[in-house]
Queue: 4 jobs
Job 1
Amino acid sequence: MTERLYYHDSFLREFDARVVSAEPGGERWEIVLDRTAFYPTSGGQPNDLGVLGGAAVLDVLERNEHSVVHVTDRALARGPIHGVLDWPRRFDHMQQHTGQHLLSAAFVEVFHFPTVSFHLGREVSTIDLAAAKLETRQLEAAERRTNEIIFEDRAVRVTFGTAQQLAEAGVRKQVEREGILRAIEIEGFDRQPCGGTHVARTGQVGLVLLRKCEKVKENWRVEFVCGERARRAARGDLTTLAEAARLLSCGQGEVPAMVARALEERQSSYRARQRLVEQLAEFQALTLLATEARAGKSEAARVVLRVFEDADADYLRMLAGKLVAEPGVQALLAARAGGHVVFAQSAELGANMNALLRESLQAAGGKGGGTRDFAQGSVPDAGALEGILQRALERLRA
Ligand SMILES: [Zn+2]
């Protein structure tokens, strides 16, 4: 049975112990000590890392209720050993975990929203709240209340007792377990059964910052960061905002208004461009019909055949539409830039443009389709377009 030193002193960064067993597990070793300050992954809190003798601790896990297993990169002899924790990592976990207790208690106090589960992640942590709806003003209120308790620098204490004793003392969430349980008490604010590591005073959490919330099944998931993570997140946001302000040549406070204006301008220039493109297509259709129309199968049919350099598929479709809006027109259009092909004809003509396009493209390894009067597709090799259109013209005339 491993004595868990962190249960009583979460600020223990180094400790002496004895190696009780060391067993190989693949390329790693599994070390059990008589006592340890290393926290194993459990209760939502990630494991510690660090050094054990000359070995790196890669993982720490609970084998059963009784032993803590240290996964190391090399073997260790039985006997005395010195352990050193990766302290920045552990302290970060303590800040996040105490911050989580505070935040969960604040949501209960202010809105009666209980926390149904939580996750302490590598980048951000989350709590899931049982609430019908969660609004921004509620997030802000809970964040404000949590930070009030942090600024009051209240004591965080570890207490022990049976489930019955803890329930009588008043815990946020009751547990039904035998034996002596451990609880974390935040002076005059919260008491919660927990086996995790916590800071000694709320002031050490530094700050809690709520980042966002989203509905997950029937609950609301709130993302938060504490301590150094909160500073890093705020610095990241500020850098992003400063860059946006620089790009928009405005003050940071003006960014939302400037973005809204830029989006409006983009929308109206897009509409203006669409109108111009449409006019261009109309004009080009008339020019092509006047100067490049070739004889079709009958006297009633004219064929426009053209390979463009860089027209996009939208323009090709639009132009084809304008061409065949005139009576007696068959259009065989293509664009080298994307290998696009459009075959179309005026409604009263009798060819099957869909079949013609499919057969024409198939030979060149392309694909496409459409209706009897309007079909489109593409080929992988734009160099084949001239030949494809010429052969299609011959078949139209045949
Ligand atoms: Zn906890």
Job 2
Amino acid sequence: MKKLHAYASSLLLATFFAIPVLAGPAADEILVANPYVRAVPAVMENSAAFMTFKNTGTTDHAVVSAASRAAEVVELHTHVKDGEVMRMRQVEKIGIQAGEATVLEPGGLHVMLLGLKQPLSVGSTVQVDLTFGDGSTKSVVAPVKAVGGMHHGTGHGK
Ligand SMILES: [Cu+2]
């Protein structure tokens, strides 16, 4: 009986210590593909960054904040349907489930760039610094591209 108990304990310990090994920092497990920032005319104050996050790990992760020297304020946003109108809404975090991908795209989730400090012309780049829920960080250099569809910078926060 005593031996069995010892065996069970070591099994529990093994399980306990295995968990940190499986769960790496989010910055190592999240791959960023196809980052881009919407090109806007110089008169526009706001723009947005889009990208695809792929979680190669076995635990769920989330982007909890973003920053960029290109903008005064950077927020995590999504779009919600309000009657017939799509409106932007700030979100606390953007989740990326284990083994899954989360796509930031026009009309959906995006990294909002508010109060642009530099013109965002096609061909330039914007660095976006992401912070994950576990405190790890990742910097993404996104090319500025012409993006069709919805215009950011109008109707914000209403
Ligand atoms: Cu937005």
Job 3
Amino acid sequence: MTRPSRVSCPIDLEAPGKRFGHLRVPHSSNRSAYGWIGVPIGVIVGGAGPTVYLGGGNHGDEYEGPITLLRLFQELEPERVRGRLIVLPMTNLPAVLAYQRCSPIDGANLNRTFVGDPGLDHEPTKAIAHFVEEVLFPRCDAAIDLHSGGRTLDYVPSALARTGPDDPLRARKLAALRAFGAPVSYLVPPVGNDNGILGAADRKGVLALGTELGGAGTVTPTTLAVARRGVLGFLAHLGVLDGVPEPGPTRVVEVRPEHYVWAPRAGLFEPAVVQGAEVEAGALAGWLFDPDEPERAPLEVRFEAAGLVLCRRPIPMVERGDCLFHLGADLAA
Ligand SMILES: [Zn+2]
């Protein structure tokens, strides 16, 4: 660790048993000179076995993780756990409480903040990321961080791994994705993903998965069921739990740069497809109307590549550069 963590943890992470408390993330503000943000943390220490990090609320407008992990933490007892669970159901608590992707305090996106910097007093998001990477991950064998599309994307319920051909953990990540058993599993290349929590896990040699369970700023019983079964399946796969139903089949795809569709200009977007559709290269993605020129025919927006539509933007108002869709394509045999 280059610089020590600025976060203190009030609960013992080592002794057998089940405990819950609040990490103290220093935050001096106009209303509280020596204040701190209390980020919830739970630990369940059972018998011999691996240590697993379970995270939710990394992005604040994605609630499958918080709800699923709060429920599982309440249900699971140390007698059932072979190993140790470290649970952060609302990792970026200020963002979760604000229904925002990024922190309302420092504006930071936690999942782009794993940069090895404990931050200054007005940068609580950096402090949280640094604590997870430098204090928690060195204790962990495996991790899962539960995401969805948030307010601005809506996904086919998916789990994902950051991996490429040279990844020593690639086979284990694929096996873990099958154990999670989401309808779709997708692989993202490591390039350009260094500052997320999956990059942090790779740096520490932690076997880690992410998810994109749904989105549009809400949760449904369907997405919550995928989250719950998936986390239990992941823990069973790691040998931490018994008595978990077998996973359903998952379709494994990869996401490449040509799979993204971006808004070429601002306007009102009418989608031609929804997530779950199969499209050919050149297929129509939708139409973009210009509110400044209502009489003008809408601009046609097309998919560059073929594939499975994994997500779409549910908000019709768009600006140039907004992601409208992305695809996944089946892995080459
Ligand atoms: Zn997210």
Job 4
Amino acid sequence: MRRSRNRKSGVAVAFLYRVDRAKPVRRMTSRKWGALALAMLARRTCPACGLDAGYVIPPSLGMCIPCAYPDDQQRAA
Ligand SMILES: [Zn+2]
């Protein structure tokens, strides 16, 4: 810190400000990604069987394909 003040105080200060600005941004993005992952997981989880369908549950059906069309699953099996 002492040496940096004597030689490159401006650069050191600017770098510290950049780090301070970068940290909250990274936290916000990580939180957004976490919220997105939870939202995607909630959308992918079927409310009928409670299993992760592996895809977003269609809003028109409100449940996963096997739950919405049990007849097709029985025919396929
Ligand atoms: Zn289901």
